[in-house]
Amino acid sequence: MTELMPAEGVFSLIWLLIALPLAGAAVLLVGGRRTNAWGPLLGVLTVSASAVLGIVMLLQMMQNSPEQRTFDQTLFSWVFVGGFQADMAFQLDQLSMVFVLLITIVGALIHVYSLGYMSHDRDKRKFFGYLNLFVAAMLILVLANNYLLLYVGWEGVGLASYLLIGFWQHKPSAAAAAKKAFVINRIGDVGMSLAIMLMFVTFGTVSFQGVFGVADQASEGTLNAIGLLLLLAACGKSAQFPLQAWLLDAMEGPTPVSALIHAATMVTAGVYLIARSNAIFDVATVAATTVVVVGVVTVFIGAIIGSAKDDIKKSLAGSTMSQIGYMIAAAGLGPIGYVFAIFHLLTHGVFKAGLFLGAGSVMHGMNDNVDMRRYGALRKVMIVTYVTFAAGWLSIMGIPPFSGFFSKDEIIHAAFEQSVLTGVLLIIGAGVTGFYMTRMFIMTFLGKARWEDDVHPHESPKVMTVPLVLLAIGSLFLGMALLYWGNIETWLEPVVGYEAGESPISTTASIALSLLAVGLGVLVAYLMYQRRAVPIEAPHGSWLTRAARNELYGNEVNDVLVVQPTYYTSRWLVWFDNKGVDGFVNGSAAFVGGLSGRMRRYQTGFARSYALSMVGGAVLVVLALVLVRAS
Amino acid sequence: MNPSSYVVLSALLFSIGAIGVLVRRNAIVVFMSVELMLNAANLAFVSFARMNGNLDGQVVAFFVMVVAAAEVVVGLAIIVTIFRTRRSASIDEPNLLKY
Predict the structure, then answer these.
(1) pTM for the full model?
(2) I need a surface site. Which of A162, A226, A489, B31 has the fewest CB within 10 A?
(3) ipTM of the predicted structure?
(4) Which residues of B touch A607 (CB under 8 A)?
């Protein structure tokens, strides 16, 4: 059992991890134009300072024994109503620690890269303000020690993503994409808030310690309900089936935002939520199985979409969906999977940031064209981007010794321990990954140049390539480092639990199978895109290709299932409001008005007719009195 | 003398007053009719006081007289003012205060 350590020494500064980027966001957004000159640099500095602080805390944490690595800092009592209590309190343990490092270090690299990428943008300062807000919200999410505070970060991430996806709001497509992301996330948020309420009703508390301590005492039905609601929340944030549609449109934002959303923040939140709530999912077997199913389905949806898109960013977005699907599936496997879900999340965070920033670098040199059919042969003119993108490419496919190999292989192995079917499906998914990533790589960097006439590709400035190089080094070594030197299983075990299961096939066999699948994928992509010329106009393609280009009709399904019914319900409600509610109110007003119009005719101005009315009234009263008396 | 005769007289006077208020156009005459109605009421009060053998009705009659005096002051002032502006004491002419 882990001890709760008081936050002393360097850990008394846990709040500062969040406060730094939050203060940066506040200064940049409130300060306005006065901060234009030095604002972006301040944004970089605050996140970098958080990263340094995080590294110091990691070193300090490694001094303690594994049971004494959970630090708790209560700032003040936040909500205190009746039996309900939620503190503004942070909890830093091994799980939060790795997330803090991922968010701040990758976040800082993306900030640095943005200095170059956004250098010509008029609203550069605002962009860095939003980036800082994004990082701060994500840090609140992973450092909270209760679900309510986590929800604050959860919503903060949603808000920041909305602002950033719609950063180029003068483009209608960007504004629409931002709204779409926000609305779809809101569906997930409903799950989150219901889960929190259900937890409070069931356990009487929403703090992690309180809920997990008594989680196994609740009935399995309740736990399954909480688990499924949490899964709904995770689906929204992590773009899992059936709430995946926003992620592809989110590419409307500037490329560093895509990198931040896909690597360090936002989409990882769902995986974090499930790994953090492991005590619930361990007991809620139905919910856990659903998690695996959702994960595996999304692996394929993402991979198929990624295989058909010609837009380099959307293809990468499909790959993110697919890779997050791996993590969610691993998290659903239970104690054999949580560790590897987080492991894959970390390696993916690094190599996907590298891939996205690489794509941004390519776009930077190609006049912001995203169509891979107009790329080709860029390896000669963008040598740094080429090499670093190759590192990400090999890593995401899981080629040893790149980091993706270790994490993905562990997930596949863990899946075999649970069920052979899941394992086989995940191996096939790895093969598709090999196909679409190779396709993207060949279409972008190899083959013949298919550039538009006025394009003069060039390598990006140092401020953009240095983060790329650092992330490429990360994609190469992080897997090995975490597995062999960092012992990720034993590091995370006190928080999420870990047990090795019995696998029906040996580790060597599963590695060989997944490498074989990847090799096949690479071979197919090589034959299709390297040996044959890539046409500039997209060919008609098979029905599957066309479906994948249309994002597997996800938007149409949403349209029919959600948008149209909502639209018609609203139309009906508007009609009812106009005719029914307003009709009643307006009708009674018109009735009173009309009646008054008639009645006022009796106000003639003739004093004698008033006198007659009085006499008549008096006579009536007397008559009434007489009649009552007589009866 | 039978006290009920006084009550009948009072009713007669009241009716004459009421009809006077309704049918006459001259404001002064209408006013006098109102006074007639008030005094008819006073007569009824006093007769009932006599019939019941206590003084309550007589006390009320005094109150009515005081109120009537005050009313006369206000009413005549209004009539005089109207007469000054319109050169007429007709009660039907000032009819601007209407719908």
Answers:
(1) 0.77
(2) A489
(3) 0.88
(4) 91-92, 94-95
